[in-house]
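Below is just one:
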Amino acid sequence: MSELPLPPATRQLGSSGIEVSPIAWGMWRLAENGRSAADAAKLVHAALDAGITFLDTADIYGFNGSGGFGDAEALLGEVLAAEPGLRGRMVLATKGGIMPPLPYDQSADYLRKAIDASLTRLKTDSVELWQVHRPDILAHPQEVARVLDDAVTSGKIRTLGVSNFTMAQTAALNHFLGHKLVSTQPEISPLRIDCFENGELDQAMMLGLTPLAWSPLGGGRLAKPESARDHAICAALDKVAGEAGVSRSVAAYSWLMAHPAGIIPIIGSQQVERIAEGAAALKVRWTRTDWYAVLVAARGVPLP
């Protein structure tokens, strides 16, 4: 039975030379429920202590529809200000380009302000990765590229990525960039397999982009399956999870990580135990038979 290789201990972020953990922790809900800096620090420590050095946030994280814009970044900034030594232990990524109440804004003036504002909230001089959060179809990619290249040249950003871009949008922005993209962040999970079949992961491999998977557990639906399709996917994951002695969530992370594009799942949990358990995904080995069984369950029809 053909076995797939285990994930490496670290992955390179695109062609940047920056080494990151093969699994990341995301801070979408970090600022919820009035979480204190001390409690946020416990989560940061949980990730770092588990070997998860790649931390992902965004300026929109914390926004509740009327307020809270920038709250997740600001809370992490408090943690870093209280413990400056933590900054050197992490590869920090953030995103921008969404400005409530506008849908998306990647005009040159806004992007410059958004980058500076993120750095101020995070209390850091630079971030390792800055990503355009969602594409602004009213912004010419050459204009966007010019601002991003300037930010890299000035040292505010080390590398660039995109999130929720189509293949054509990714190619267009990358064409105009002097400092080429190193990552793409689409939604990928056993419940959302579009990237496996629409060419996004093939493009990532061709361009040397590291795919960062947001919502790798399907927004929690893997924990509480509803449809017949959900249950079939969970059953296929549970087979491997049981054999490996891990949770279904860990099996789902490892399923993504087994893909040759080098997918990095972003753990979205804000619970210490759930963050720490993610590291177990590095020890789960898949066979091609079991991997395709999950894919077939997700497709709902046999492979051709």
